[in-house]
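Researcher: Hi, I'm a grad student and pretty new to this. My advisor asked me to get structures for two proteins we've been looking at. I'm not sure of the right format, so I'll just paste the first sequence and hope you can take it from there.
Model: That works fine. Here's the first sequence with its C-alpha cells right after it:
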Amino acid sequence: MKRYTVLVIALFSSFLFAQNKIHNPLITSEEIKANIYYLASDDMKGRFTGSPEERKAGDYIKSEFETYGLKPAFNGNWFQEFPFVEKVQLTKANSLTLDINGQKQNLKLGKEFTTVSYSANGKVTGDLVFAGYGISAPKLGYDDFAGLDVKGKIVVVMRYHPEHDSSKSEFDRYASFRNKATIAKEKGAAGIILVNGYAPVNEDDPLMDLRYDGAPPMSDIFVQNMKRLFVDQLFKSEGLNFLDYQKKIDASKKPASFAFKNAKATLSTGVKEIVSKGRNVAGMIEGSDPTLKNEYIVIGAHYDHLGIDQLKESSMYKGKEPMIHHGADDNASGTSGLLEIAEKFGSIKERVKRSIIFVAFSGEELGILGSTYFTNNSPVPLNEIAAMLNMDMVGRLNSENSLTIIGTGTSSEWKTLLNEKNKYGFKLGFNEGGSGGSDHQAFTNKNIPVLFFFTGTHSDYHKPSDTADKINNEGEARVVNYVYDIADDIDLEAKRPDFIKVEEPASRGEVRTRVTVGTVPEFGFSGNGYKISGVTEGGPAAKAGMKANDIIIKFGPKTVNNIYDFMYAMGDYKAGDKVEVVVLRDGKEVKLNVELMAK
C-alpha cells in the first residue's frame, strides 16, 4: 500500500510538472520525463484515436507548440481532423431462425449466434447446405463446392481447413473467414453460417468478436456465426454425426459436402459502422532563407495508443479485465522527443533556413491513418517536402546503445550523415527500406526520403505494462539530440536530399500469396475496391503502368471489393502468369496487363 501511495504521488507530481514545467530550450531528460509521465498517465486512458483523452493529449501538444513560438500548420489551424471507422455495432435487426423438420428455433443473439462484422445487411431465407471447410482450391485437388448446388441457399462452413494441424499447409491461404464468405458468394450462396468444428479442440466454442477488420462490408451475402450445438442437431436430423464427418474430411483430404434434406434458416442481419474523428496536431517554423524557406522538413511522431480495450486485437495483453494501455514508449516517448526538438528549433527560429513542420499524428495504431491523411491532404505541396524524420518508440535505449534507423536507403545522403553525426556512441543498425509500419511509410509512399528512429521492441510492447517508469530518460535525451542534429544539418545544407525508391518485400496485403503485384495499400480507404498509394519500382504493377491512387476493381475474372478480395484473387496464380487487371483511375476504368512475380 505504501508503494502504491508513493507511485500515485509521483504520477500526480509529474502531472503538475507537465502542466507548469519550466521550459528549457535545450533537450533535457527532465522535460522528456515530464511529458511522458503526463501523456502516459492513467488520466490519458491509453489515448485511443478519437477518444476524449486523445483530444486532451492533442490540446496539450498544441499548447506546447504555442509556447515554443510555432505557428499553426493547417491554414491557421493547429488541428487536422480525419474520419475513421472506430468500430461496428449490431442493430436490432439481427436474428437467426433454424427450421429443422418443421421445428423452428429462434437462437439467442450473443449467446448462440452472432452476425459477423462484414456481413451485408438484410434478410434471407434459404435451404441449408453443408459445405465442409468452404474451400475451393482445384489446384490443390480440393473443392468443397464441387457438384454442390448452393445458389440462393445458405451454406454451413467450418473454421480452418483439413490440414489444421500443419503450420505449413497449402490450405492456409484459403482459410480466412472473409475468403470463405467470398467463395460462397461467388458460388451463388445467399448466406453463410460459420461454425467451429471439433478440431482443433475448442471446448468453449466461442462466438466471433464483433470487430471492424479495416475493409467495407460485403455485398449480397449475409454472414453469421453459430454455435456448434446446432450443427450437431442438423446432422442428427439426417442420422449423421458432425464429429465423424469432420474426421472423415481431415483423414481423406476429400470433401464430404451435402444438402440437408429438410432444414432451412432465416438470417436477418444489421451491422452499422460507427465513424469517429481523429486529430493530427501540427505547428511550423517558417524558414529565414528566401529560397530554402519554400522547402519543408517534416518531423513527426504519433501520439495515439491502444486505449483500454478498443484495440484488443493489437494488444499483447491476454487478461480478461480491461486495463489501460499506457503507451509510454509507444509512443509518448516519440511525442516527447518531438516536443523537445520543436522547442529547441523554436528557440533559434532566426537561423532556421528551411521551413519545419512538427506534426503529432493520431491513428497510427489503426494503420497509419493520420499520416496517410496528412500526405493526402498536405498543408504544403508534397514535392516541396525535402525529408521526413519519424520517432516511434525511442524510450528504451539499452545498455549496448543500440539504435535502429529505418529508411537509410531512401536517400544517398543518409548513411554518411548518420555516421558523421553519431557523436553519442550509438551502435547503429541500418535498414534501407522505407516501410516498417509507422508514420514515415506514408511519406516514402509519396517518394519523400525518410528516416525512422527506433530503440527496439521489448516485452512490454502493446501491454498495459508499457509505463513511464520504465523509460530510459537520459538515453532518450541522447537519441533526441541526435535526431535534432540530423534535422539541423538537413535544414542548413544548401542541397536537399535526393530520393531513392528502395525495392522491398511484398507489403502488407500480399502476405498469404506466393506472388507479388508490387502495390502499397492506401491505409484507411473504406470505399469499394482496393486502392493503392504507390507501387514498387520495377515491380509488376509499375511495369504494367499502375499508378498511385488507382483502385483495383477486378483481378482476372474476380471482382475486387476490398483488400481481402485482392489477396484471395492472387492466390490462384503463380509467378510468370499474366493477368488482366481493371483499375478505376479518375473515375474511368483502365485495363492493364500485369505479369506476376514470385515473392
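Researcher: Oh nice, that was easy. Here's the second one.
Model: And its structure:
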Amino acid sequence: MNPATALSSVLIDELVRCGLTDVVLAPGSRSAPLAIAAHGDSRVRLHVRVDERSASFVALGLARRSERPVALVCTSGTAAANFHPAVIEAHESGVPLLVLTADRPPELRDTGASQTIDQMKLYGSSVRWFSEVGVPEERPGQVAYWRSMAARAYQRALGPADPGPVHLNLAFREPLIPDGDFSWCESLDGDASGPWVRARVAPPSAGLHVAPTRRGVLVVGDGATNVRRYVAAAGMAGWPVLSEPSGGGRYGDHAISSYHFLLGVPEFADAHRPDVVVTLGRPSLSRPLLSWLKRAQEHIVVTPHLGRWPDPTRSATQVAAAIEIPVAAGGDAWLRSWRVAEAAARQAVDAVLDDAGLTEPRLARDLADMLPNNALLFCGSSMPIRDLDQAMRPRRGLRLMANRGASGIDGLVSTAVGAALAHNGPSYALLGDLTLLHDQNGLILGPREPRPDLCLVVVNNDGGGIFSLLPQAGLPDSFERVFGTPHGVDLSYVAAATGTPYTLLASPDDLPKAIRGEGLRLVEARTDREENARVHAAMREAAQQAVRSLG
C-alpha cells in the first residue's frame, strides 16, 4: 500500500471511531487519497460540492446543527484559502470543524510548483489547534502517530470546553491513488474496542450562587448553552427573559419579545434598571439592549469558555462557567411591569404589521408563527435576524439558527443546506437577496448528493436593505450606488439555472401555501427598501407610544 493511501484510510477510520459521521469534499487531485477513503467508508455520509466556499459552509451548517465535528476536505493551493471565511465563523461561534487540507510535499514548496502556496497555519488564530501532519512514510510507529493525532484533533474540535475548528495539513507524495498492494510494515488496524485515545471530561464544578433578588433579568444571545435550565430558573425567580431569536429562550410566560422597543424608551429603561443581569451567549442585535447592559449594577456573563468570554459592552462584573439563580422572596411587581409593557408594545407592533401588507418584518413574524413544531428556521445575518428579533412573538417548538459568530452574509445558502441535512424535520431559511446572490453556488447539488428538505424564503428588495435604516441613508449622492447596490437580478432565473422549484409570493396570506412542499425550493417575496424603512419607523413609534401611555 502506498503511504498516501495508508494515511488517508487510517485517518478516516480513526475519526469515524471517534464519532465522525459526515465528510464534505471539494474535489481536487492532491486530496485524492482522502476523497477515495471517505467515499469507500460506508459509515460516512459524503457530501460533494464543486465550490470550496460552498463546501465549507455546508460543513459549518452540518456541524452547527448536529453539534459534533464534521470533516472538510480540499486539495492544495487557493482551494484551502476559500475555506477561510467558514473557519472564521466556526471560530467565532464555537462550531466544531475538522479542516483537512491536502498539500504538496516540502520539496515542491517555494519552487513555483502548480497549486502550491504556504498552508502552514493558514487560518492563523482562527483554529483551536493546527498540525502539519508530515509526509507519510512506511515505517513502524506511523499508525500510532496518525491515530493518536486524529483522536486529539476530533476531541479538540468537539470540546466540550471551547469547541471550534481544527486544521490538519496533509502533505502527500505521489502515487495518490491505491496501487493494488495492501501490504504494510505494521498493522493498520485500530483499537478493537473504539478510539485510539479516549478523552474523559471532568464534571463541571458547582456554579456561582447569585444573591436572591426579584429585580433580575436573564438575557439570552446567540450561541447560548443550557438555555432551558436557566430559563426555568429565571421563571422560578420571577425574572423576565430577553432572548434573541437564535438564543433559544423566547418562549413561556416570562419571555419579553419586544425588549428592543421597551429599552428604547428612556423612561422605561431608567425605571427598569435591574440589580443583576445574567447573560448567556452573545447578544448583538439590539442597540438599546446593549446600551442598557452598560448601566447594569452587576452583570454576570455565563460561558463554558472561561478563556474567551463574550462581553462587547465591557460591562461584565463577573464571569462564570455556571450559576445558581435562587428564588427570591417578595411580590411579582417587577415581572408584572415587564409583562404589561410587553403586551402593550406587542399589540402596537402587530397592529402596524397587520395593516402594512407584505413587508419584511411581517413576513418574518408570520413565518415564525406558522412553522410546525420541530421545524428548523435558519436566519440571514443582516435584516432577517433583526426582523425576527423585533417582530417574532414567543413560541415553543421552533429551532432557530444563524451565523452570528462573525455575522457575515457569505455562505448562508450553503450553511442552511448543511443545517437542514443534519436536522430531523422540515427546514426553512429566511434570507435577503444579496445573501442569496452571494452564495448562488449553494443551490448546486449533484444528482447523487444527499438532498435537504429546505425552503428558502428570500426577501428581494433589490439591494442592501439594512443600509436604509442606517445613517448612510442620508447621503443621497452616494447612497444608492455604494450602499443600496441594486442588482436587477431576476431570482426566478437563478432558481431555474439550478433546477430549484420557485414560487413568487404575492400576498402575506399566500405564505402557508407558498412554503408548502418538500426538497430544496425557493420562495421570493419582493419588497421596497424605502417602504421597509417607513414600516420599521412606524413599529418603533407605535410601540414606544404604547409604553409611554402606560404612565
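Researcher: Is there anything I should tell my advisor about the second?
Model: You could mention this: The mean pLDDT is 94.
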